[in-house]
Amino acid sequence: MTEIVRNLKKSSQEPYDLIIVGGGIYGVMLSFEAVRRNLRPLMLEKNDFISATSLNHLRTVHGGLRYLQSLDFPRFRESVVERKWFLKYFPQFIEPFPCLMPLYGKGVQKKPILWAGLLLNDILSFNRNFSVKKDRHLPNGKIISPQQTGEIFPGVDGKDLEGSAVWHDAGVEEYQRLMMELVKLAVNSGATALNYVNVKGLLKENDHVIGVSALDKETGDEYEFKAPVVINAAGPWSRDVAARFDKDHPPLFKKRLLLWNVLFNREALSNHALALNPEKGKGRSYFFHIWKKRMLVGTGEVIVEKSDTELNVPGREMETFITDVNKMAPGLNIKESDIQRIYSGILPANENGKLAKRPVLFDHSAHGGPKGLYSISGIKFTTSRRVADKTLNKVFPKAKKMPHEKILEKMEINNLSFDYHWEPSNEADLNKLKEIMQKESVLHLSDLILRRTSLGDHPERAIKILPKIRGIFAWDDKKWAAEVKDLKENFKK
């Protein structure tokens, strides 16, 4: 099994073609696309891999149907192509699921409009199933009757119901395992990935980037890493890093949009994901995902000011969110006490406070900054690989790319998956967890529970199984107690 080796002293003595600041989804995809070009990337993450916004995800790989509403065909095609990429190359993680939207004849949610939209979706994504395994094919969309709607979604509000639109999209249950497989694929092909390394400054020589200085947060030791290119992919901190390394570039993050998804301690309302609207066709819509047969609802959003508490969903906003959920599913009677997990993160917004439409790539040298420094700000999980590909095409225009198959043939899957109530039942289960812990740079208990597995998505279960997994950690009792305390604090956030 590929091992993510965390040896900062050795790593600081190696030469690299580029250094990536940030170990979220964009940093991971940059690493993956860099090794495709036979480049040697170093990814430095100040916390753990796939934390912050990248972890707090709706577990979907959207094909962009909603972009047809605004006739944004470029974004639609990008989403379709990248969803297909995931379905083709990671079928063990990505699977299709049906979606249903009840129609009440209001706004754009009218049968003729949705029928035309689904038809256009199918025509423009005509090649979505080419070279994809048959069991991962996405069927055509359709309009169904009110009676059929009630059979699929028994809790539907039947008043004024004219039928429903049905289509298919893609989702991922073991999101953390998919992300770590991408990290390992990059490492197995020449990348170096280091977590808990805080990049402090940019190293320059004759106005050209030569590397970065960084702090090992685990030991307090300082290191320098050398490369002629540095790409700032620090997510919500990308504008801060750009300003620290060179100058502030407001378009990277004009405003800070807090988005959140909520996992409720309830079974899914249907075997279809549901696109529902509290006003039956007007205003915002919510998506009721069927993640592991549970009810995962998103997405709420509000503009926030930068502060230590910006990831906390304001109380009034959560009250509105829950009120809307109850409007959309009469009789559900959801309460705040039904919340299992809140997944919140920060993404860039435009001047109007809406989610930015396009990622931003900033070449600092084109604006008087050091040569070899770039900053990117992304907005979407589904198209993250495409953004990484475009970025590296600009930074390394002469680099030849090997086929994805060449990288993916090295994939070594840890097949351990976790249903909602999973608990380790034998030595084999414990050994698989131990293998993850020992070979994927797990430094803390929360790394294993929250960011290497989905165990932390059911906090009560996670706490319950701690005595069973205690033996796979070589820590003394004091260290173990501190790690358990930290994990429980994470669950309170």
Plain-language structure description:
By secondary structure, the protein is an alpha/beta fold. It has 3 domains: 8-54 and 176-253 and 356-406, 3-Layer(bba) Sandwich (FAD/NAD(P)-binding domain); 97-170 and 255-349, D-Amino Acid Oxidase, Chain A, domain 2, CATH 3.30.9; 427-492, no CATH class. It has 14 helices and 18 strands. The protein has helices at 8-11, 25-36, 73-89, 111-124, 146-152, 175-188, 238-245, 315-328, 384-395, 404-408, 427-439, 445-452, 459-469, 477-492, and strands spanning 18-21, 41-44, 60-61, 94-103, 142-144, 163-172, 192-194, 197-205, 208-216, 222-226, 230-232, 255-267, 273-276, 286-289, 294-304, 339-349, 360-363, 373-377. Strands 3, 4, 5, 6, 12, 13, 14, 15 and 16 form a 9-stranded mixed β-sheet that branches. Strands 7-2-1-11-18-17 form a 6-stranded mixed β-sheet. A 3-stranded antiparallel β-sheet has the order 8-9-10. The relative contact order is 0.16.
